[in-house]
Amino acid sequence: MAPTTSHLARAAGVSAMLSGLLYIAIQFVHPAETVAAVATPGWAIVAWMTVAVGVLGLIGVTGMYLHQREESGVLGLLGLLVFGGFLLTAAAFSFVEALVLPAIVTQAPDVVEDILGIFSGAPADGSLGALEGLGTFAFAAYLLGGLLFGVATFRARMLPRWAGILLAVGALSTLLVPVLPHTLGRFVAVPVGLALVWLGGSLWTARRGRADDAAGTRDRARLDPTTAA
Fold it and tell me: Assign residue 21 a region: left if phi > 0, alpha if psi is -120 to 50, beta otherwise?
């Protein structure tokens, strides 16, 4: 059976829920961002979890946008593009963390330390060129994209409005990260993870309800003799 729009939307809802749950879990188990930690099994596990957050999150947010594209308008599209940019960046960087850094940590620990500093806030020394701006880009895309998409969801009224607010506020709370210890600043991400779970669950149930209603309508039409040709 070919997948329907309802099936795809429900799959996007499940993807968003899984992304949010993984995003929350990562904040509690992420190892210290040190050269020594890169060679541990836990490092690779968390890096692959983060890749999954990015990929599943992009699928989920895209499904949410398509569900409310007419109501969310240009604001929703901008939110999708900007927040999607963050998710793609997170997935790509974590792929490097999972496969590349453990392979070179013994031969080039200084390079590994510089790469880790992109997101850990270590001072840049210019050795990585334009890559040193990746952390700033991801920070801005996360904050602005989450804010735009959250506000668009709130205005669209197609998904829970409070979940949209939670996403927007969670993204804004990233402004606290520079003034918090790095280990504590991680937990600022929890509201965004909760918002993804909430929105994804609502998308899944909304599309499931529509599919059930459509199936019921078809069944009643078959049983109603007045509709027979």
Answer: alpha
Q: Show the DSSP H helices in 158-189 as ranges.
A: 161-172, 182-185
pLDDT digits (tens, 9 = 90+) for 163-179: 999 999 999 999 998 88
Mean of the pLDDT values across residues 184-193?
Answer: 90
Q: How many helices (H) does the chain have, and how many strands (E)?
A: 10, 0
Is residue 33 within 8 A of residue 122, CB to CB? The reply is no
Kind plus residue range of the DSSP H or E element containing 49: helix 41-67
CB 203 within 8 A of CB 159: yes
Question: Phi, psi (5° rounding) for residue 228?
Answer: -70, 145
| Residue keyed to tokens 């994804």 | 200
Nearest Cα to Cα of residue 192 among 59, 30, 61: 61
Helix (H) or strand (E) holding 195: helix 190-223
Report pLDDT for 123.
Answer: 58
- The residue assigned the tokens 């890169």 is 38
The predicted pLDDT at position 224 comes to 54
46 and 26 Cβ atoms separated by less than 8 Å:
yes
What does the pLDDT read at residue 51? 97
Residues ≥6 apart with Cβ < 8 Å to 177: 139, 185, 188
Instruction: Compute the distance between CA of residue 72 and CA of residue 54 in angstroms, rounded to an integer.
Output: 22
Spans of all domains in the chain: 5-224
Of residues 124 and 58, more confidence is placed in: 58
